[in-house]
Amino acid sequence: MLENLSSTDILILVIGFTGQAMFFMRFFVQWLYSEKHKRSLIPTAFWYFSLGGSSLLLIYAIIKRDPVFIVGQSTGFIIYIRNLILIKRERQKAE
Questions:
Q1: Is the CA virtual torsion 77, 78, 82, 83 positive or negative?
Q2: CA 10 → CA 1, 38, 72, distances in Å?
């Protein structure tokens, strides 16, 4: 299957699968963090993995010209950035 793909096609697949892996890691990090604290919590790393995964998946969707995937990833991207801004503001207030 992969022998028929160009190096560009393989790079596009790597971007897509890396984005999916980062998206998975946000759930994994959140689960471990919540287990450690014995309650549901969302660590900052969750939002960074969300942003990284969303960025790569958005690139993948644009390359593939998938409008549904483009809209889905771009709206999430805005939410992840907003959460990181809120976390930064909260930390600045605490200082």
A1: negative
A2: 11, 41, 23
pLDDT tens digits along 12-36: 888 888 988 888 888 888 888 888 9
Count of domains for the chain: 1
Provide the residue range defining the domain that includes 75: 2-94
- What sign for the dihedral angle of Cα 28, 32, 34, 35? positive
Rounded to the nearest 10°, the torsion over CA 78, 83, 86, 88 is: -100
Tell me which amino acid residue 88 is. K
Mean pLDDT of the chain: 86
Note the pTM of the prediction, 2 decimals: 0.73
